Each structure stands twice: as C-alpha cells, then as structure tokens.
C-alpha cells in the first residue's frame, strides 16, 4: 500500500488520511493531513468533490453568502441564494450575482418593486451601484437631468422626466421643484407677469400663481403703469382723486386734470 495505508485481509488497501488509489499512492488535493481541506470528498484519482458552497481544486474556497459560516454538506445558501459561485478565471469561489443583487455574497438587494409600473432594479430608471444604492443620473450627460429621484429612482420630477421643472428650475430629491427667479407654480411652468427677466417690471411682487401685487402707485397686470402724480401716496392723483386699475385718475368733485 505504498507505505501509506494498511493492507487488509482481502488484499485491498485502507489508505491513510490524505491518500487514495488502489495502492494508496495518490495524494489527495489539499494540505498534508487535510485532504480536500476537509470541505469535500477525495476521489480515487486524487481530485476533490467539494461540498455544497465550496470551490477550488482542493475545496479551500468558501463561496460568500448570508450563512457562510454554516456551509457544510448541503446546508446553507450559496451566494445567499441570489447568484452562483464561479471559479472563472481562477477557482477563488467568487459570487456572480443575479440581476438586482450586489455584494460579495449577493447579500445586498438593489431597490426595486417601489414603482407600481416597474419591478426592475432602480425602477428601470437608474443603475444599481456595488453597494446596492441607485444612481438615478447614470449615463446622463453632465448638464442633462434624468428626471427621476428617490432611493429607487421611482419618483418622477414635476414637469415630467423629459421636461424637468419645465426647464425653469431644479428638481429636489422628493421630485418637487425649486423654481428659477421669475417662474412660479409647482412645475415652474408659469412665468411671472412682466417677464422672468424683470418680474412685475420691478414695481411689485410676483405671487405664487405668477400674478403681480403692485406697489401702491403702480397699476396694470404687470405693474407697468405709474399713476399720475405718483409714486408717493400723497402725490398720487395729487391727493385729489383715486387711481383706477388702468392708471387713470378719478378726480374728486371740484378737481380736474390728468393728475387732478
């Protein structure tokens, strides 16, 4: 038995630990005294049949997974049950994760199933990073907004993904808009009266609905008309009349003229 086993009465060999073959001349894969790293069965040709969850010619590599410490025999979940343990290009026991999963042992799940119309990773609107977080801007040019927000890229920006904030604002993480100066309404679709460059002609405040609240001596929807005699209140219509919405003085009895 090649001095590596015991010859039995039936003239067969009972090999020492770590050796195999009819005459015990074949060394099992693995370290001396640890055939197949104790993680597999040594076959008659010296090769190893690894237990479930182990890889490598000597079964030394443990496939990562949620229950990696209990990978013995057929127990445990290889690659967390979400991937396969691949030995390419070297038998290192690395996990190749299924779509939608990340992590050394495929233990991280990409955000999904959070958008009613889409169950794919990152709701189909982003890229799942190695740490299983979503990059909603992946693949977009630096100056182009994808139009999607939220942890799973499930929130569409107001105005729509193709017209984010109507092109006049910045989309926040909750999908709401912060409008540029001179624009109003939820999706920044309303330009202030008088124009965005000079809201209310500089003579009033642009309200949330885009209309103007004019200063006391100004009239018209865009605060473009100065009341005669203005702009100070005592001089409006010379203090002898009322300036109407069109900027015309309605004079008190006994007073006439454009500014009364």
UniProtKB/TrEMBL annotation:
Keyword vocabulary terms for this entry: Disulfide bond, EGF-like domain, Repeat
This protein's name: EGF-like domain-containing protein
Domain EGF-like: 154-189
Keyword Secreted: no
Stretches assigned to coiled coil: none
Superkingdom: Eukaryota
Protein's organism: Guillardia theta (strain CCMP2712)
UniProt cross-references to Pfam families, sorted A to Z: EGF_2, EGF_Teneurin
Covalent S-S links between cysteines: 179-188
